[in-house]
Amino acid sequence: MHDGIGDAIYVLLAIWAQAFGLSYAAVGVLRTAYSAALAFLQVPAGMLGERMSERALLAGGTLLAGVAFGLLAVAPSYAVVGGLILLAGVGSAVQHPLASTIIARSHDGPRRRAALGIYNFAGDVGKMSVAAAMGLGIIALGWRTSVAIFGAAVIAMGLAALVGLSRPPGRRDAPAPIVQGEGAGGYDWGFTDRKGFALLSAIHLADSACRTGLLTFLPFLLIGKGAGAASIGFGLALVFVGGAAGKLVCGLLAERAGILRTIVMTELATGLAIALVIAAPLAGAMVLLMPLGVALNGTSSVLYGTVAEFVRDDRQSRSFGLFYTLGSLAGATAPFAFGLVGDASSVPVALSLVAVLAVATVPIALALSPHIAKAVPAVPRP
User: Are the beta carbons of 314 and 188 closer than 8 angstroms?
Assistant: First the structure.
């Protein structure tokens, strides 16, 4: 549901641009409002989760996000839309650090990476289903009714989480015991390999910027090729279907080919696929969107599953929060920055820069190699 909110915004951006007469930079600001809330609040949410019920915070944030998104149905102006998107981001800020921590604590070793991969896959199920439903709903019911229906669904999920997660079977709803040691305290992030975490985060920054930059302006690229609202929703759904498959496939690929090789392959494939989509006519671009999604989202599954390897168990909430915050900062700035490029030149030029940024992560991945080798022991093949 949370990932559905974030990516439903991409479908609505072109509608709002027409309704309120927005420039590309102004469109980017709307997406930035959501990402900025995540960027500033995910670390506080992770720290707060160390001191109170993670599950109650997760349910409360979901309720807030659903209410804010539902109220977009009656938003009369660009400013109100921006404010409600910001509020939805405040509610969604709890999801990544707290849910990731709950899952990471429940699994060890290779099972942890698989469990986090399934968690991220579930997010992609939300992205592809909501994007497709929103595109069809806009045609059949109008964007305001579609937004109201999905907001109500998120509120219902928040209530279900409040009840269903209140008493997890066999587990105590309390933070993990804090390990006292050098640097322990309010500013101790629990890093076991600070440089490895930094390099992993740098790849995450670029990867998140590529994803939000592409998805923000992909609808406008498709419009330029002759696509309508239904085609835009379907096209984004294809990206998200590919992304869901990519997270599963790349998780398995990382176990076989290795984390480093998987990152390099997915980033190079992302840059190439974006370039091909820019050059292709509408029919060809639609065919390429699913493979693009595989490469675009495949990297993130590998990155998320590796965070815990560089952090102590007692500090995972805040470290996951920090990691997701860095990605959200990139997601907050990228749409506006690429929007400025689009206003100054064109959408294809802006998306060409996205492709270049994806390829630029390869040298960082190569620098990460020795840290991964030290943190992730080789698993013998059966």
Answer: no
- Domains observed in the chain: 2-167+190-374 (1.20.1250.20)
Nearest CA among 141, 125, 146 for reference residue 72: 146
Q: Are 318 and 46 in contact (CB under 8 A)?
A: yes
Q: What is the pLDDT of residues 8-39, one digit of tens each?
A: 888 898 888 888 888 888 888 888 888 888 77
- 3 state DSSP class of 18: helix
Q: What is the pLDDT of residues 117-164, one digit of tens each?
A: 778 778 878 877 887 788 888 888 888 999 999 999 999 999 998 888
Residue 88 in tokens = 């939805």
If phi > 0 it is left, if psi is from -120 to 50 it is alpha, else beta; for residue 265 that is alpha
Q: Tell me: the pLDDT tens digits for 203-234?
A: 989 988 998 889 888 988 999 898 887 788 78
Q: Helical H runs in the chain?
A: 2-20, 24-49, 54-71, 78-92, 95-106, 110-141, 143-164, 194-224, 229-257, 259-279, 282-307, 316-344, 347-359, 362-375
The two structure tokens encoding residue 268:
């190079």
pTM value is: 0.69
Q: Do residues 260 and 372 make contact, with C-beta atoms less than 8 angstroms apart? A: yes
Structure token digits, residue 260: 């480093």
Q: Which residues contact 292 (CB under 8 A, 6 or more apart)?
A: 239, 242, 270, 273, 274, 277
17, 81 contact by CB (below 8 A): no
> Rounded to an integer, what distance in angstroms lies between the CA atom of residue 355 and that of residue 352?
5
Q: Which two tokens stand for residue 367?
A: 């620098």
User: Considering only CA atoms, which of 65, 60, 55 is closest in space to residue 2?
Assistant: 65
Which residues touch 110 (CB under 8 Å, ≥6 apart)? 255, 379
For residues 298 and 19, what is the distance between their CA atoms, to the nearest angstrom?
Answer: 34
- How is residue 167 annotated by DSSP? S
Q: Are 41 and 163 in contact (CB under 8 A)?
A: no
